[in-house]
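Any chance you could type out some protein's one-letter sequence along with its backbone structure tokens so I can compare the two?
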Amino acid sequence: NEGTLHIKVTENTRGEFDFSINYNSYHEASLLLGFQLRRAIFNGAVLKADLRLSSMPRLDVSYIYQSRFKPSFSIDASVNNIEQALFQNGKRITTSYNVFSSLYLRSRFHISNKRSIGAGFGFESLSNRTDAFIELDKIKELTSTNVAHNIHLFYRSDTRDDMYIPFRGSKTLVDVYIANSEFVLNQTWVNILFRTEKHVKLAYRWHWSNYLNAGMNTNQLQPGNSQYMFTVGGMLDMRFRNYIPFAGLDFGQLMTNNILHFRTRPSLKIFPNSYISMPCDVMQISDTFADLDKINLKYAGGLSYEYRSPLGPIQFNVSRSNVNRSMYFFLNLGHWF
């Protein structure tokens, strides 16, 4: 005798809500709130929202629709308040306050569960206020707002075992932005960023991670659109476009139009979920792509303690670079974005 058993699974839970508390040397204390609603308006649609409440608040909202075929479609909006110190000869001279906002319509095609390609169209806006010290007892506020329209092409691949402190797998991101601020053809510029990282286990207690970041802007990049420049410095891998971590520097201490960056990080497991790591960074930067071959190396090294706790990653880092030539300390407690 033969028979057929049909099992029907119905997903009754439509929504999810999560929160966490974070402390790190950049944002200080933060409250992270996340919300997700499935079958929002249409079957196969998801509404997602992430909110960071801190000294640099951020809001991300996405509405994603998965069609019956492979492609998914989304509307993505983001508003991010960024406070960035400006340095000269390794010394902080003033502070820049930036509000970065974006709105995109995107389509994504999933090649597999871990890989996808996509394209989108949207705009980005950057409002900036800088406290420029004109005299010792006088501050002049400089304000500017720049808007750019983009075609965004991207590739994503992620097989890492952990988002925050990975020790196995790999991740590759490719982003190409074709941008124009005035709809003038000869003022169109291209922004490209390639990121890849590989994590392997060498022995019972030893792990080795390597990172490569390569970014460029064509010479038509219009002044004031600094969100297309590459922001370098700090140890926290934030959800901030064109941000590249670098030991021994303050958050966003350097900004450049073109960059080639490599990091290697050997790690030793000392206790369950506890690691000692030694990040080493080197990068070549330039204002124009043609000058990228002119040696202008920045390098740094440090020592980190990293713990995968049940409440989120715990990290403490001591590092030094040839830019500041002083010790830099970084602490992170809990998840971030």
Notes: The first strand starts at residue 15 and ends at 24.
